[in-house]
Structure formats: structure tokens, C-alpha cells
């Protein structure tokens, strides 16, 4: 784990050390020699033909790693996957991004990738829901859909020939995200799963785990209605309403609790998935830990110990 | 600074209005403060303070110098702050200069008092060795490594911690010399004088968002400020310095209210900071 910047006293340090060692021993049985640092030789059977992939180089007849990461083997390809790199998009990934530019017929979004992702106007549902050709008027009204600095949820559609990513937001569940907070964690902590949109009923909260490390926690919004007839009137009404209607306190507490659970898990370096987040949040409320104290050292140590126990139970059950 | 969407800004304002900020803090709660002292061995005193994701280092270096002709019985103290490009890409080259000057001036006002040195948190007369001829020049440098809001408070706390970690070498003056000759001084390597830092004030920044004040704003919350007041208060509860930032005008009654809130917050902050500094010094001695 990256040097935890928490003020731990002596007992907490020992407990955390023990929990982390337990986790390490449980996981390393699977891939003990998989992690490498720069200039480590990669264990390969040199008699078999193999292909040298990213992150490797041939040095004096030996295969040597050029980045710190995990060795992956796919058929004959051997490559090193760096852990704390930028997000590497794959087609079909759900990502959460922030609009940085409104350009001609497209929006540019920042998604923690080496280039800005592009969301074409044609990949976006029109507010009136009708499928039609985008006219020049639509282009001029792009700002009424997304503006700069808006948080948007979309899906990776394909890669451009120059390596940049194209997104699409055609379904009802994609689109602008409001009434909540955006958290930024390392992309490698969010693994691909069947569901990235989670509606936590017991809290009434939407949780979107973007694969690029952007996590959205916010009030639950019903799937948007396509038919908004009077755009201008609506936006006026909504701003007036907003001034009066802040998020209710209880929902806000739940949002903060979930957000802090995500922060704790990312500081400890655990994979972030919905079940673990809910468990961590429930652990904190069952122990009556104040929401702000969740970011203190004691709770971090508790979460690490719980996770170590849970994983050892799982491995015991497997056997 | 990353921009925020309208929805996110509204969420932050709602949180502040309901006394539950984005990370669960109340309006007047500080983030956990983490103090490390003695991080720069070549300096006479140094400290590193982490306030959430804000990370600053302060160092104190003392050199022998000549007191100014106007104040022959006082030493000289200079405070300077530098914003490192690791904190934000815009600080590269001369980009951070505006912020650095603003922070340096604010710190000087809060900690050093007036031009004559009166009312200063650090007593300059304790720095003089031979009146009119030799004195200590204290150079206090602050470095911002990572910026997540509330730099002034963090720097103030770091300077306080660095000064309590400072050991000025003891100086033996050679026998009496006459007139304009520079006296000979022997700087002892063994004995050190510690500063008395109980008189040093802490800085509390109150940020006004909408109709409420918050303490220790993160950079997201700072993007919403209408105005902010930084007040430096010492242990006795006296105000040592006052700076107002932000363009919005404030009614005088609001300023008085903010001052009393800051006074209340500063008591807890001073106690917390003193205990953390003592713990850090104890840690340093162990290692």
C-alpha cells in the first residue's frame, strides 16, 4: 500500500500491519511472482516462442520489465500491466467524465485518460426524445444540454483512428449528473463488473462506479422523461426550485457516509465495488461512528481488519 | 483548480447550509492535522503539516547579521512563502508568484506585528546578541507541496511548529571591543536556545459561503467563497492580525460575529496544535 498518511498510534499501526500481512498472504498464493519492478527479469520459458508486449524489453538476452506492475500472460503474449497508470478505456466501459469544452457538434470530456474523450452530438439523445437529424439549431443549442464543467455519465463506443475515445450516451440512464458529489480514485481499483449503476434502495442513493476512477454518489433520479416541451421555461423553473430545495438532511448524511466509505477503501487500496461500499457504510453506522470520524485512523484499521477476516473466510469456504 | 458544475456547487452550498459538508464535517470542524517536526536537518528548525490533502513545510534558518540602525536592539525576521509546481501545474515558473506574495504578506501581518516590531508573536528583542552590532536574522520559509484549500492556516500552524522545533545556537561574545569594531562571536555547537512559542498566534480562516461561515475550506469549497477573513489569535484570545480576502462587501456586524466565532474555534485549534506538536517532537526524539 502507498504510504498511508494517517496519524496512527502504536497499537493501530500493529493492528493494521497484521491485517495487511494477512491479506497479502491470502492473495499471494495465487500469483506470487506476478508483480515486478523496473529491471526485474520476467520468468519466461525461453524455449517456447513468446511475444514481448508492453512494458517489457530484451536486455542481454533476458526479458526485463520496464515498468512496475503485474505480469500478464495471454496465450503467447507476455506483457506488464502498470498499476497506477492512467485509465485505459475498453469498448463498452461505463465512464464518468467532466465536460471541458463545447466544440463543433461535439463535447470534449476529461476522463483521466491521456486524451480528452469525445461525445458527439449525434451520440446523445435530444431533449425532446425524437430521433431526427441534428440541425444547425441543435448545434447552437448544445450548451442547453451540457455546459462546461458538467459531470456526465457515458459509455465508451469505440476508438478513433488517432487513439482518442468516442463516447455515447444514448440510453436513459446516461447523461448529466447533478445533486451529488464526484469522487476521484485510482482507476485500477474499479474492476469491470456486470453492473456499474447501483441504486441503493435503503439509502435512496445513486452510486455510479466509473471505470476511469470517477465515482458519482448522489440523490436518486428517476430515469429521465424524454418529452420536455418547453426548454426555456423549464430551466427557469428548475433554478428557482433549486434555490429553495436543498437535498434533505438524511439523504445528505447517507451520501456523505457512502462517499467517505469510498474514500476509506481507496486509501487502503481495496477494490471498490458496491457490496463492499455498502458493508463499510453499514459497519460505520452500526458502530455509531460519526461521519467525519470515518476518515480517522481507527476506522481505517477496523475496515482493514474486517476485510482480512472476510477474505480468509472466503478462502476457507472455497477449500 | 478543477471547475465544478452547477449541480455540484448547489450540493456544496446545501451542505454548508445544513451543517454537513461533503466529507461529513460540521461547519466549524477542522480536518485532522498531522504534524511532523525536524524534517529538514540542515535547518535550525522545520516542520511539515498535513491538513487533509493540503501539505506544507516550514523551515527556520538563523544567520548572524547586523541590526538595522533604526532598531539596534532588535533582531530581524523575514517570512517568505513559495508555491511548488507539484501543488498545481499553474505554479510552474512565475505562475505561483501572486499567490506566494499574498500568503507571505498575510503571514507577515499576522505574525510579525507592526513595523517597529511591537505586538509581534515572536519577540525580536530576544534575537539580539550585541546591541547595535550583532543580532540573529531569522529567515522563515514556507513551501506549499500540495494545495487543497486553507493554505494560510496550514502555513501558520507549520511556522508555529517549526519555531517550537528551532534551536538557535548559543553565542559567546568575545571580550569587550570598542567603538565600531565587530565583536568576535563564537557560535556554540553544543548548546541551543529554544524559543518560547506559547505567545505565537494561530491563524483561523473563516470563509463565508452564502449566509454561513465555514472553517478550513477545501479547494472545492473555496471556489464558492464570497469573502474570507483570516484572523490570527494568540493563546490569550487577543487578535494579532486580520486580513480580508474576496470581493464581496461585508456588513460590520458580520465581521464582529466572524471574529467571535474565530476566537471560539481558535481555542480548540491551539490546544490541538500544541498537543500534536508535542507528540511530533516526542516522536522525533525517539527516532
From TrEMBL, chain A:
Database matches in SUPFAM superfamilies: Eukaryotic type KH-domain (KH-domain type I), Nucleic acid-binding proteins, Ribosomal L27 protein-like
Major place of residence: nucleus
Domain S1 motif: 90-170
BP terms from Gene Ontology: rRNA processing
Protein origin, superkingdom: Eukaryota
Pfam family, one: S1_RRP4
Key word RNA-binding present: yes
GO cellular component, one term: exosome (RNase complex)
GO MF annotation list: RNA binding
InterPro entries xref list: Exosome_RNA_bind1/RRP40/RRP4, KH_dom_type_1, KH_dom_type_1_sf, NA-bd_OB-fold, S1_domain, S1_RRP4
Keywords, in A-Z order: Exosome, Nucleus, RNA-binding, rRNA processing
Compartments where found: Nucleus
Family assignment from sequence similarity: Belongs to the RRP4 family.
Name of the protein in its database record: Exosome complex component RRP4 homolog
Species in which this protein is naturally found: Theobroma cacao (Cacao)
Gene: LOC18611717
Automatic annotation (TrEMBL), chain B:
InterPro entries noted in UniProt: ExoRNase_PH_dom1 (IPR001247), ExoRNase_PH_dom2 (IPR015847), ExoRNase_PH_dom2_sf (IPR036345), Exosome_comp_Rrp42_subfam (IPR050590), PNPase/RNase_PH_dom_sf (IPR027408), Ribosomal_Su5_D2-typ_SF (IPR020568)
Keyword Cell membrane in annotation: no
Record keywords: Cytoplasm, Exosome
Compartments in which it is found: Cytoplasm; Nucleus, Nucleolus
One Gene Ontology term, aspect cellular component: exosome (RNase complex)
Family: Belongs to the RNase PH family.
Protein name: Ribosomal RNA-processing protein 42
Source organism per UniProt: Theobroma cacao (Cacao)
Amino acid at each position: 500500500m502507498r504510504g498511508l498518511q494517517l496519524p496512527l498510534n502504536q497499537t493501530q499501526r500493529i493492528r493494521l500491519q497484521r491485517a495487511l500481512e494477512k491479506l497479502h498472504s491470502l492473495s499471494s498464493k495465487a500469483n506470487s511472482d506476478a508483480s515486478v519492478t523496473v529491471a526485474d527479469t520476467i520468468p519466461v520459458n525461453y524455449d517456447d516462442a513468446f511475444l514481448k508486449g508492453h512494458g517489457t524489453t530484451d536486455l542481454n538476452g533476458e526479458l526485463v520489465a520496464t515498468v512496475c506492475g503485474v505480469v500478464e500472460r495471454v496465450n503467447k503474449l507476455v506483457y506488464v500491466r502498470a498499476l497506477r497508470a492512467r485509465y485505459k478505456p475498453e469498448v463498452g466501459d461505463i465512464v464518468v467524465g467532466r465536460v471541458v469544452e463545447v466544440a463543433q457538434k461535439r463535447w470534449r470530456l476529461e476522463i483521466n485518460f491521456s486524451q480528452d474523450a469525445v461525445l458527439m452530438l449525434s451520440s446523445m439523445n435530444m431533449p425532446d426524445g425524437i430521433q431526427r437529424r441534428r440541425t444547425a439549431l441543435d448545434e447552437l443549442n448544445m450548451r442547453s444540454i451540457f455546459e462546461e464543467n458538467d459531470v456526465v455519465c457515458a459509455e465508451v463506443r469505440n476508438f478513433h483512428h488517432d487513439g482518442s475515445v468516442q463516447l455515447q450516451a444514448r440510453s436513459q440512464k446516461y447523461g448529466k449528473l447533478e445533486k451529488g458529489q464526484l469522487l476521484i480514485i485510482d482507476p485500477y481499483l474499479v474492476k469491470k463488473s456486470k453492473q456499474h449503476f447501483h441504486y441503493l434502495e435503503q439509502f435512496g442513493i445513486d452510486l455510479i462506479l466509473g471505470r476511469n476512477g470517477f465515482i458519482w454518489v448522489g440523490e436518486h433520479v428517476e430515469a429521465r422523461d424524454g418529452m420536455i416541451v418547453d426548454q426555456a421555461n423549464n430551466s427557469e423553473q428548475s433554478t428557482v426550485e433549486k434555490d429553495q430545495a436543498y437535498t434533505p438532511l438524511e439523504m445528505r448524511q447517507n451520501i456523505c457516509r457512502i462517499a467517505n466509505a469510498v474514500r476509506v477503501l481507496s486509501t487502503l487500496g481495496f477494490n471498490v465495488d458496491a457490496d463492499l461500499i455498502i458493508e463499510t457504510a453499514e459497519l460505520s453506522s452500526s458502530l455509531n461512528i460519526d461521519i467525519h470520524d470515518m476518515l480517522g485512523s481507527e476506522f481505517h484499521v477496523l475496515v482493514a481488519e474486517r476485510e482480512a477476516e472476510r477474505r480468509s473466510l472466503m478462502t476457507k469456504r472455497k477449500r | 483548480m478543477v471547475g465544478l458544475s452547477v449541480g455540484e456547487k448547489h450540493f456544496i452550498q446545501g451542505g454548508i447550509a445544513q451543517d454537513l459538508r461533503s466529507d461529513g464535517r460540521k461547519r466549524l470542524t477542522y480536518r485532522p492535522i498531522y504534524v511532523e517536526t525536524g524534517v529538514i536537518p540542515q535547518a535550525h528548525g522545520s516542520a511539515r503539516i498535513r491538513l487533509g490533502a493540503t501539505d506544507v513545510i516550514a523551515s527556520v534558518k538563523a544567520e548572524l547579521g547586523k541590526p538595522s540602525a533604526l532598531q539596534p536592539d532588535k533582531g530581524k525576521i523575514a517570512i517568505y512563502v513559495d508555491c511548488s509546481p507539484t501543488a498545481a501545474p499553474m505554479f510552474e515558473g512565475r505562475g505561483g508568484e501572486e499567490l506566494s506574495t499574498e500568503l507571505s504578506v498575510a503571514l507577515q501581518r499576522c505574525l510579525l506585528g507592526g513595523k517597529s516590531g511591537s505586538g509581534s508573536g515572536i519577540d525580536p528583542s530576544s534575537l539580539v546578541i550585541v546591541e547595535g552590532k550583532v543580532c540573529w536574522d531569522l529567515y522563515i520559509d514556507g513551501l506549499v507541496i500540495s494545495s487543497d484549500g486553507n493554505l494560510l492556516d496550514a502555513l501558520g500552524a507549520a511556522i508555529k511548529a517549526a519555531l517550537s522545533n528551532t534551536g538557535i545556537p548559543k553565542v559567546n561574545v568575545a571580550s569587550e571591543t570598542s567603538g565600531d569594531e565587530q565583536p568576535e562571536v563564537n557560535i556554540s555547537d553544543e548548546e541551543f536556545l529554544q524559543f518560547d512559542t506559547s505567545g505565537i498566534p494561530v491563524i483561523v480562516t473563516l470563509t463565508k459561503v452564502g449566509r454561513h461561515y465555514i472553517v478550513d475550506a477545501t479547494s472545492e469549497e473555496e471556489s464558492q467563497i464570497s469573502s474570507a477573513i483570516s484572523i490570527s489569535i494568540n493563546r490569550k484570545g487577543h487578535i494579532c492580525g486580520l486580513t480580508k480576502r474576496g470581493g464581496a462587501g461585508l456588513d460590520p456586524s458580520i465581521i464582529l460575529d466572524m471574529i467571535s466565532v474565530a476566537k471560539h474555534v481558535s481555542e480548540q485549534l491551539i490546544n490541538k496544535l500544541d498537543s500534536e506538536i508535542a507528540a511530533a517532537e516526542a516522536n522525533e526524539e525517539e527516532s
